[in-house]
What does this fold into?
Amino acid sequence: MPERSTTLPDDLRADVQTLWDYHDMHHELRPSDVGIGLGSHDLGVATFTAELFHAGMFPLIVFTGANAPTTVERFPRGEAVHYREHALELGVPDDAILVEPEARNTGDNITLTRTLLESRGIEVGSVILISRPYQQRRAYATCKKLWPEVDVICASRPLPLDEYIESIGDVDRVINMLVGDTQRITVYAGRGFAIHQEVAKDVIDSYEHLIQEGFTKRLI
It folds into this structure.
């Protein structure tokens, strides 16, 4: 198997950075009722969720996620299960973690987590959604559509683009995911899965250029 590159090519940097910046909601963190760690291939989501818990940002964590083609090899027992195990290793107490192991998309993450909390009689007025950096905007738009009454903040592990690519270990994977999530902003809103989000011309131009460069693996 060829070694995966972690170096962002100079001729793609501006376009990738444009999409990276677009998906960051730049929300200011404040204490909330629940921290929701959205399952993905990125174990850094669980790491940052644990850090926020220890910082007193929320008293309860829900890790949500089953598997997807991009995660089944990395997390064979399910994304949420592996996230929980990682958080326990980082010192989060077991009784502060709930696991929702069935969600297979962001809509499921929101609706199944909401159902789980309601089934436990836990009243929620505010949440912090912890995700991959480039999932923030889509997670926000989905939550506002499916759980509009809750106050939602989005957060990700605060890594610069190059450090994030290094942490994932595969620049092509990161670019493909960025392009796919950008497409989903408009497609999912059009299908009624999420609220409408503005997409500036520079974002559209960068997105289209990266598609022309062959980063199409995560397109719907």
